[in-house]
Specification:
The protein is α/β, with parallel strands linked by helices. The protein has two domains: about 1-115 and about 305-360, Rossmann fold (3-Layer(aba) Sandwich); about 125-300, Glutathione S-transferase Yfyf (Class Pi), Chain A, domain 2. It is about 45% helix and about 20% strand. It is globular and about 70 Å long. Belongs to the RecF family. InterPro entries: DNA-binding_RecF (IPR001238), DNA-binding_RecF_CS (IPR018078), P-loop_NTPase (IPR027417), RecF/RecN/SMC_N (IPR003395), RecF_2 (IPR042174).
């Protein structure tokens, strides 16, 4: 089992100095907008992923007027205590340690404290561009497979270098393609691994998403999900060679795993144009719960689940189905934020489970 028993925040976002003990498996966090509910969830996320879920730059998470921040989380993992500390120094250097042992590479920590978060802007996974769905997929696979994370990081590094070279070819009128051949060989090496892992993983994951969608909706709907990749129809070297002239012209790499997507249809029409807000939310939760279940099966214990403002745009039946699964049918720790204390108490009381309520 994995649980968080205490977290301390120093100069993190809107918190000058605050400590939160967690005494129950189900934790409700209530308060008006802007008081720091989401920031508290993000601090928990930091402990699991070494970074924020909501911001790209660590410096954006420093309390206004301060020079750095510190997060300290006390976890229990399979009965063993873990003290997780994340410090952002005045210099911008980030330090991360577990039980006083610092990491040389932050990526080493990914997957040790599995966690799933659902936030309002996550609806972009359904309605936004393909990069949103790849981000969801990669976040999950990186927690399951350290080798996948390394290959993905290497691929993105080479992709950036290749794109830079394509721009310099146009600017300097370079006609020698030897360096491009080197980049293509490296992209193929890293990209093939990522493609194979995605293809293999999604064979089981996408049916699980459909199963959870039906469970949340309470009835079956004609939903179809498919993995889309340019590599279905060509090998990586063939794809890069076929698109090379176009790449030189547009000065970027137009083929590869960075164009992959999960195609979603309802009644044989694009889901994001046909679906209601309730259906979009249901599919989002289905994807996240499939992520939760996949991590639980792989790790042999439930991940932490962070639910930020999930009560909006879901009707009472769908919300009950969601909470029944995450709070009653699973033994993992759940953190849920809401602006209405009475509403969250009502739902928890209906489920008949012990809970802790934190008012901010």
């Amino acid at each position: 089992m994995l649980s968080l028993t205490n977290i301390s925040l120093t100069q993190f976002k809107n918190y000058q100095q605050k400590q939160f003990p967690f005494t129950e498996r189900i934790v409700g966090i209530c308060g008006s907008n802007g008081v720091g509910k989401t920031n508290l969830l993000d601090a928990i996320y930091y402990c699991c992923f070494t970074k924020s879920y909501f911001t790209r730059s660590d410096s954006q998470n420093i309390l206004h007027g301060a020079a750095g921040f510190r997060i300290e989380g006390h976890f229990t993992l399979q009965g063993d205590p873990l003290k997780v500390v994340c410090v952002l120094r005045e210099t911008g250097r980030k330090e991360f340690s577990v039980n006083e042992e610092p990491y040389e590479k932050l990526a080493t920590h990914i997957g040790k404290l599995p966690c799933v978060i659902i936030a309002p802007d996550d609806v972009q996974i359904i309605t936004g561009g393909s990069e949103e769905r790849r981000r969801l997929l990669d976040a999950l696979l990186c927690q399951l497979d350290a080798s996948y994370l390394q290959h993905l990081m290497d691929y993105n590094k080479v992709l950036q270098q290749r794109n830079g070279f394509l721009k310099s070819m146009a600017e300097k009128r370079i006609t020698d393609f030897k360096l491009l051949d080197v980049y293509d060989e490296q992209l193929t090496r890293y990209g093939d691994y990522v493609y194979r892992k995605r293809k293999e993983f999604l064979l089981g994951f996408l049916p699980l998403v459909k199963q959870f969608y039906t469970q949340i909706a309470g009835h079956t709907e004609p939903l179809e999900l498919h993995y889309e990749s340019q590599l279905h129809d060509a090998s990586f070297p063939q794809l890069l060679q076929r698109l090379r002239q176009k790449d030189v012209m547009v000065q970027r790499t137009s083929g590869g795993i960075h164009r992959d997507d999960i195609n979603t249809q309802l009644n044989n029409q694009p889901f994001k144009t046909l679906a209601s807000q309730g259906q979009r939310k249901s599919l989002l939760f289905a994807m996240k719960l499939a992520e939760f279940e996949t991590l639980k099966q792989a790790k042999q214990f439930p991940p932490l689940l962070l639910l930020d403002d999930v009560f909006e745009k879901l009707d009472a039946d769908r919300m009950h189905n969601l909470l029944d699964y995450v709070c009653v049918k699973n033994a993992g720790q759940v953190f849920i934020t809401d602006t209405h204390q009475d509403r969250i108490k009502f739902h928890f009381n209906n489920l008949g489970i012990p809970f802790q309520l934190i008012s901010l």
